[in-house]
Amino acid sequence: MNWYPWLNHSYKQIIAQHVAQRGHHALLIQALPGMGDDALIWGIGRWLMCRQPEGLKSCGKCHACELMQAGTHPDWYRLEAEKGKNALGIDAVRSVTEKLYHHAQQGGAKVVWLPDAQQLTEAAANALLKTLEEPPKNTWFLLSSREPSRLLPTLRSRCLLWHLPPPDEAQSLQWLQKHCSASLNERSAALRLSAGAPAAALALLEEKNWQQRLRVCQALPAALSGDIMSLLAVFNYDDVARRIGWLCSLLVDAAKWQQGGGQFIGNIDQQALVIHLASLLPTSALDASLRQWVVCRDRLLTVVAVNRELLLTEQLLSWETIIKPVFSGSELKE
């Protein structure tokens, strides 16, 4: 598992609390995708499992460390939804929590890792809550969540919330430069489009992903001035939410440009397109467009068995009603 330099500070602080016998039994880490919270939790878990830790580091030599490195430690429990599902039910939680009240098979700590605590159903969260309220001795819970506010308040209250912030932009750009050949503008754009998470930016800069983004950018001008429905072929893919996110970022940048905030745009490598959108669409049209696309994206992500093509078609037709008056001259840019 990759370790990232921006994890060092949080790791040292958390482990130092354990060394001082002040470690919280339930740690809830809030982090953006691409921040490496899974690596941070893995590092913490290895230290907790190690039988002969060397200060803030696990020894890497004891039997517990060998088992962790091999991924076969019997007292390390990973709780997540089954493949193809997005909900973690009560049975899976009970199966693990019952084992926690037995003696650790290796005689040391027992650690439960939830890579995505938001997968917990309400019943599963309540079942876990009972164990969090009265945890067995030497048992630790490590949870990750992108949006802790979506978790049950009672569950959050039993955890120590730890925010894993993105590193500053200069540090991230330097790290990206070591790992890819993209230009400064491309690296800056990828980083800002990834909310500052360096590993997510690196993934976006991969050839396939970057070309998909460029396709969205390149198709937009012609579609706006011609056939808006041509965008259906650009958006109708499994990663539609990400593609809509790229479109929304361009609309936001155009609004920033109109207000004199050009230095804050995310799509630095697409400045010409941002200026084009800012000069083409009135502020009211940008605002209405953005609101529509955000709602569409949310429906695509949350509605069970949604008909993606039908929803996109409906959205594009609706968007056309906002944009069409601009080209007919019936609406002037504010």
From TrEMBL:
Residues 208-321 form the DNA polymerase III delta subunit C-terminal domain. Residues 167-205 form the DNA polymerase III subunit delta' AAA+ ATPase lid domain. GO terms for cellular component: DNA polymerase III complex. Coiled coil: none annotated. GO terms for biological process: DNA-templated DNA replication. GO terms for molecular function: 3'-5' exonuclease activity; DNA binding; DNA-directed DNA polymerase activity. It is an enzyme of class 2 (transferase). Signal peptide: none annotated. It catalyses: DNA(n) + a 2'-deoxyribonucleoside 5'-triphosphate = DNA(n+1) + diphosphate. It comes from the Bacteria. Its EC number is 2.7.7.7. Keywords: DNA replication, DNA-directed DNA polymerase, Nucleotidyltransferase, Transferase. It holds the Pfam family DNApol3-delta_C. DNA polymerase III contains a core (composed of alpha, epsilon and theta chains) that associates with a tau subunit. This core dimerizes to form the POLIII' complex. PolIII' associates with the gamma complex (composed of gamma, delta, delta', psi and chi chains) and with the beta chain to form the complete DNA polymerase III complex. DNA polymerase III is a complex, multichain enzyme responsible for most of the replicative synthesis in bacteria. This DNA polymerase also exhibits 3' to 5' exonuclease activity. NCBIfam families: holB, PRK07993.1. PANTHER family: DNA POLYMERASE III SUBUNIT DELTA (PTHR11669:SF8), REPLICATION FACTOR C / DNA POLYMERASE III GAMMA-TAU SUBUNIT (PTHR11669). This is DNA polymerase III subunit delta'. It comes from Erwinia tasmaniensis (strain DSM 17950 / CFBP 7177 / CIP 109463 / NCPPB 4357 / Et1/99).
